[in-house]
Amino acid sequence: MAEPPAGWEATVDALEPLLPGGKPRLTAELLARPPFRFIFDCDKEAKLSYLTKLVEAIGSTLGQPVPARPSKIVAGLEPEATNAMLRMLAAAATGGAKRSGSAVSGAASRYAPPPPAGLAAHASDDSEAGQQAEAPSVAFQRVDNMLPALARQCGEARSALSAGAAPGSHDALALCEQVAGIARDAAVLARSLEQLLGAAPVIAAEAAAWRSEADKLAARLAEEEQGEARAAAASARRMADLDAQLAAARQRVALAAAQRYKASRMLRALGSRAALFQRSTLVAVRRQSAVQQQGTVMSAAAGGTGVSLVFVTVPSAEVGRKIANSLVENKLAACVNIIPGLVSIYSWQGKIESDAELLLKIKTRKQLLPELTEHVKGLHPYDECEVTAVDVTGGSPSYLAWVLDSTKAG
């Protein structure tokens, strides 16, 4: 159920005495959205025409504008204004303007549409009526309601004057009263027009204020667009910086790849040189072995130097250092050379084996060979380790003397 409009009880009090048999019954629900069939039931155009004439008649009879609009009444909208019209209808039906008095005026002003913001403060007072001037929308409504009635009354007065009436007769008095009503309506119309003219500066001021707000909004939008343009430029600069950094990173990667390729070539060259060194060492060892063998033959004839070269192969540099250190510390050898890069191919337990090994070249006394051999076997990880020796038949006398001095006597 819709909320009852303000003043609906006054509508009931005003209309119920005029309804034959008290029907239809006026309720808050009915007056909250008064249906048009409550007044008259016909098609829409006839409804609007009937309501327009009714509003004109009420306004003409009471000399006041009717706050209700026919189109809103038909649609069931603005129930407060419709209730105000119904009370004015009851006032017109029970005695016209004389009986409507201030109650009807209060009802019209109370249910009129509110004036626009800013206009109420500039409204002028009516010096004759002593009432607050109405807002422009109400004044327009009053003019819309009064102009047709005023035109019709003027036409009726013109017709009556043309037909003529005896002075002092009842018709002449009625004609005078009608002309006086026209004059009153014209005065009300003039006041309404004066209020419209007075409201024009206020409307202009409101329009200027709206224009100022529009200018501010346009300035704000322009500032926002400039901000967006600056942000887009900054983003473009950041993207350019990122592209430059990416290009620099790609250059660094390419440089690193080139350096890596160069390093790999250097490593391959070093590997080739190491292999060449190993081959050179093996050749030198073989030559020295040949010389030693030749020296052995010669020593057999000459009696020898008392110094021997002992050859031992080991699986790793760690084992080689261990054996070399132990031999020198125990004075079983004056010097031990550790020669890397050997590849030994041999038969072991029915299989051909191949291992990378190192060669120990040991300088010692010939008399220490048995003890040196047992000492090496005790430190060597192989089950059967190589220990071979050749006699030194010649060489630097001082070096051979040093070997003998650096080893213990056998």
TrEMBL record:
This is Nitrogen regulatory PII-like isoform 1. It comes from Chlorella sorokiniana (Freshwater green alga). Residues 103-134 are annotated as: Disordered. GO terms for molecular function: copper ion binding. InterPro entries: Ion_tolerance_CutA (IPR004323), N-reg_PII-like_a/b (IPR011322), N-reg_PII/ATP_PRibTrfase_C (IPR015867), TRAF3IP1_N (IPR040468), TRAF3IP1_N_sf (IPR042576). It comes from the Eukaryota. Residues 43-94 form the TRAF3-interacting protein 1 N-terminal domain. Belongs to the CutA family. Residues 232-259 form a coiled coil. Keywords: Coiled coil. The keyword Magnesium does not apply. One of its GO terms (biological process) is response to metal ion.
